[in-house]
Amino acid sequence: MKMAVCYYSRHHGNTLKVLQAMARETEMDLIDVTVRRTVRLEDYDCIGFAAGISGFEFQKAVVDFARQYLPAGKPVFFVYTYGGAKGSGTRSIAAVAEEKGCPVWGEFGCRGYCTFGPFRLVGGVAKGRPDARDLEDARQFCRDLLQRHEGGNRT
């Protein structure tokens, strides 16, 4: 399966750590949405969108990127990290997928070290995360995506 993941990972690199663990399971192209270039996602079998959840929202740059480049009907999945709580974090990216008729094959999320805003005052939350267990769970999620594709389950 030819897979791409369009991501934004800045604060502590939590999301990129998860994606690098997933990339050990299969070849995937990691596309940093902050690097402006034309992207052709039509050639991929499945497309992931990954970011940190901040203020209970998926990173806006990734949502805007999906709105611009996601081809209609492509299977998608979401990967995210969060410090405090996920909240309704994937709602905005899921809405883009729905608008474009893209089936959602799943989502993976885990806590990630966060020192944003008020968390800085207490030295951060979710120290040491994502940890080895989180990364193994991410690899398992990737294996599950591959099985779904191989099984022909495209919806």
Which terms would index this structure?
155 residues, alpha/beta, Rossmann fold, 23% strand
Notes on the structure:
This protein has 155 residues and is an alpha/beta fold. 41% of the residues are buried. It has a single domain, classed as Flavodoxin domain (Rossmann fold, 3-Layer(aba) Sandwich). The protein has helices spanning 14-23, 60-69, 91-99, 132-150; strands spanning 3-7, 28-32, 46-54, 57-58, 76-82, 104-111. The protein is built from four helices and six strands. Strand 3 (46-54) and strand 4 (57-58) form a beta hairpin. 31% of the residues lie in helices and 23% in strands. Strands 1, 2, 3, 4, 5 and 6 form a six-stranded mixed beta sheet that branches.
The coarse silhouette is globular
N- to C-terminal separation? 15 Å
CATH class category: Alpha Beta
Largest sheet: number of strands, sense, barrel closure: 6 strands, mixed
Quickly count the domains.
Answer: 1
List the helices and strands and how they pair.
Elements: E1 3-7, H1 14-23, E2 28-32, E3 46-54, E4 57-58, H2 60-69, E5 76-82, H3 91-99, E6 104-111, H4 132-150
Parallel strand pairs: 1-2, 1-3, 3-5, 5-6
Antiparallel strand pairs: 3-4
What is this structure, in a nutshell?
By secondary structure, the protein is an alpha/beta fold. It has helices at 14-23, 60-69, 91-99, 132-150, and strands at residues 3-7, 28-32, 46-54, 57-58, 76-82, 104-111.
